[in-house]
Amino acid sequence: QGNMQLTEVLVGDLMISSEKVAHVQINNPLEHALLVLVKSGYSAVPVLDSTYKLVGTIGKTIILNQILGLERFEFEKLSTMRVQEVLNEDIPCLTKEATLMEGLNAVINHPFVCVADKEGYFDGILTRRAILKQLKKNIYT
Amino acid sequence: QGNMQLTEVLVGDLMISSEKVAHVQINNPLEHALLVLVKSGYSAVPVLDSTYKLVGTIGKTIILNQILGLERFEFEKLSTMRVQEVLNEDIPCLTKEATLMEGLNAVINHPFVCVADKEGYFDGILTRRAILKQLKKNIYT
Ligand SMILES: Nc1ncnc2c1ncn2[C@@H]1O[C@@H]2COP(=O)(O)O[C@H]3[C@@H](O)[C@H](n4cnc5c(N)ncnc54)O[C@@H]3COP(=O)(O)O[C@H]2[C@H]1O
Ligand SMILES: Nc1ncnc2c1ncn2[C@@H]1O[C@@H]2COP(=O)(O)O[C@H]3[C@@H](O)[C@H](n4cnc5c(N)ncnc54)O[C@@H]3COP(=O)(O)O[C@H]2[C@H]1O
Fold it and tell me: Which residue out of B8, B128, B137, B140 would a mutagenesis test of the A interface target, given it has the greatest number of A Cβ atoms within 10 Å?
């Protein structure tokens, strides 16, 4: 019965593990962060501190908003500003033990949700794609 | 029974209608396209021609990739290049009559999918968020 399986799947089973997740460090200049984002191809990635604890997320939107001046994009600001000044700290976060249902609720308004342990160490990310693939499997059972 | 309802919901019921969709025109300079993307807050939007037919999509990633030179971001290219030169034309497309299942399959690898009629006129976009909200409803029935 499809619904039984939904409660057995945990976020830890579906997440992309930390070693495969592109991220930036909190003290990087915005120019480095934008380079990581453009080269990895991702719109937004997690931000970690030097001990690999999760701090927040940063994306192209946030960075480009920072440099959008009144007349033009002020690209010189990219080398003077740091990730720490602009990152988004108001982010949902789950543990590996959270259920698929909690994961589904979390990704309704977020393309990905960070996963961390109770000390705040970064474990990985749960993406909408992973949730959609799992729900598609469940529809056929 | 949840599964019966899934086949009754059509893409046209879930899509964001064209008048609410931010888009750019095929002959806009990249600078204008980037401004629309930054001000609307969207990572990528549809590209239409002057008759409102769907041509493709464009996003921050594509634009920033174009201006990423060997040593720095070559921002001056934004005013000389046009959307037409860089847009992504290889995109999935659905009609309003497509089923939720077809919509789910299409968004597994795309944050949004364009919807157009058989003449190619733009009708709207189907987003992952709309699919996820619908699937969540179905899980509870
Ligand atoms: N290199 C690639 N290969 C294949 N498909 C790709 C791809 N890059 C992007 N996509 C596709 O585009 C979707 C949106 O990517 P975006 O970078 O905006 O948004 C991504 C990005 O912000 C983040 N993300 C995903 N994988 C990541 C990773 N390995 N490291 C860091 N962030 C990641 O999670 C968001 C949602 O990812 P999701 O997989 O649901 O959805 C992805 C995926 O379906
Ligand atoms: N102004 C806003 N208000 C509230 N939430 C916002 C928002 N902008 C973005 N989001 C949230 O962030 C997700 C990713 O947005 P993104 O711009 O990368 O990716 C978007 C964007 O590329 C496109 N899109 C969505 N609505 C659009 C619109 N009205 N016009 C043009 N493109 C749109 O479809 C993608 C997936 O959208 P989806 O709704 O599934 O997922 C959205 C939504 O959950």
Answer: B128
Ligand 1 centroid to Cα of residue B118, in Å, is 30
A52: left (phi over 0), alpha (psi -120 to 50) or beta: left
| Ligand 1 nearest-atom number relative to CA B44 | 18
Give dist(CA B60, CA B13) in Å, integer: 29
Pocket test for ligand 2, best of B37, B38, B42 (most atoms within 8 A of CB): B42
Name the percent of chain A in helix, strand, coil, to the closest 5. 45, 25, 30
Neighbouring-strand partners of residue A44: A59
Task: Give the HSE-up count for residue B116: Cα atoms under 13 Å, Cβ half-sphere.
Answer: 18
b/e string for B3-23 if b means 16 or more Cβ within 10 A? eeebeebbbbebbbebeebeb
What distance in angstroms lies between residue A42's CA and the mean position of ligand 1's atoms?
Answer: 6
pLDDT of residue B2: 45
Mean pLDDT by 10 residues, chain A (141 residues): 67 97 97 93 96 97 87 84 96 97 97 98 98 90 63
Task: Answer yes or no: do B136 and A64 touch at CB < 8 A.
Answer: no
**Each residue of B14-45: pLDDT tens digit?**
999 999 999 999 999 999 999 999 999 999 99
Of all ligands present, the nearest one to the C-alpha of A59 is 1
pLDDT of residue A43: 95
